[in-house]
Every structure is written in C-alpha cells, then in structure tokens.
Specification:
alpha+beta
C-alpha cells in the first residue's frame, strides 16, 4: 500500500460476530504494513440482550442452532494458522449462547483503562475465548481472566465493567453506528465517510482503502 498522509479506520464490531473474528487479523496486517493507518474500535450489538435472540429466532435453542451455521460458513474463510472456529465445542456447551452487551462492556472497560489498542487486544482475546475455547463470554469470570492475562489493573477493571459511564460509552458507539448508517458488522469506516461492510479478504480490503485514499486525493486537488 502506498504510504498515505493519514488513514483512520473506525472498526465496528461485536464480540459474538464470527465474521469480525475473521477480519480482525486482516486489519492488523494492514496496520502493520502501513504505519499511517490508525484503527479505532467501536461497539455494535447484534443481540443486545437475551430477549433479542429469542425475538429473532423464536427460542434460545433455535438461535444457537442457526448461529452455528454462520460459524461454519465463517470457518471456511479463515486464513491465519492460529485461527479456529470450533462449532462442535460450542454446541456441546450447556450455557446459553451469549448476547452482546457483557462482552462489549468488558472490551470498553479495557479501552477506558489502557486505550484503543487494549480494546483491540481484549476484543481479540474474548473472541478467541469464544470461538476457539468455547468459553462463556457473558461470564465475568471469563472477562477477569482475560484482563489478568493482558496485565490490566483488575480492581480498576472490576469497577469499570460495572460503571454507568462504561455502559454509556458502549451505547454511544451504537448510536454513532446508527447515525453513520452502520447496520451490520463487521463494518469499517475509512476517514469518517467511506463504509466497507463484510469480511472482505485482505487483498480486497487493501484495494478498497487505496481506492478511497486516491479518490480523496483527487477530490482535494
């Protein structure tokens, strides 16, 4: 990718989104290859509460069954050796399929303590716990173990995951997504205006961003 003056990518994602799990390492690779790219992270709730899963699918059990089909499809698009989506393991678990907010709040608490890079690190870790290890990512115990591995201050993290300000920050992300017309994830917004939705391949992402940057250069003379 050509070196650009400034490229800001706003990454809208949900911890329970298999396609977000697919695309996250591709964005990391882009950022590693071009130091002018900055990635910011924003919460998006596919299923804010348990009730929304029931409303969509009719029951928690049917929701889990149908969502597993999405996992299987996403698993065919993985392109990094350390990535895995273990549908068999998740199907064997007795806990309910997680809804969005607990994991989003935990990721935001990591950001509040240590910035947007830590949000990304926590987000990737919680997705790994979910898709690879079959952990219950609604459980605070899971969040605390991840926070400990990432060397976060655990007492501050505990306060932040129960803070009204953290919840407000997550809701602010969701409201911002609505204002920008982001209705699904993964979606990235390049330089505040250009939306790219879906788990595009690395080469597709790279080409799309280069085209956007070139268009902006042309428009700015």
């Amino acid at each position: 990718m050509k070196k650009n003056k400034n490229v800001t990518i706003d990454f809208y994602h949900d911890v329970i989104c298999a396609w977000c799990y697919v695309i996250s390492p591709r964005l990391r690779k882009l950022m590693k290859e071009d130091s002018t790219i900055q990635v910011n992270h924003h919460s998006f709730a596919l299923f804010p509460s348990e009730k929304t899963i029931i409303h969509r699918y009719g029951s928690k059990e049917e929701g889990k069954r149908q969502i597993m089909d999405h996992w299987r499809h996403a698993a065919t698009r993985l392109d990094y050796g350390n990535q895995k989506i273990d549908t068999d393991l998740m199907e064997s678990r007795s806990f309910d399929y997680p809804y969005s907010m607990p994991g989003l709040i935990a990721s935001k608490a990591a950001e509040i303590q240590a910035g947007t890079t830590m949000h990304w690190n926590f987000f990737d870790a919680i997705q790994n716990a979910f898709f690879v290890e079959g952990k219950d990512i609604n459980a605070e115990e899971t969040h605390l173990k991840i926070a400990q591995k990432l060397n976060l201050d655990i007492e501050q993290f505990k306060r932040d995951i129960h803070s009204e300000e953290t919840l407000k920050s997550v809701k602010s992300d969701i409201a911002q997504a609505n204002r920008l017309g982001v209705h699904s994830v993964p979606t990235i917004v390049v330089n505040g205006t250009h939306k790219i939705s879906g788990a595009q391949s690395y080469n597709e992402l790279k080409q799309s961003i280069e085209q956007i940057v070139e268009l902006e250069r042309s428009n700015n003379g």
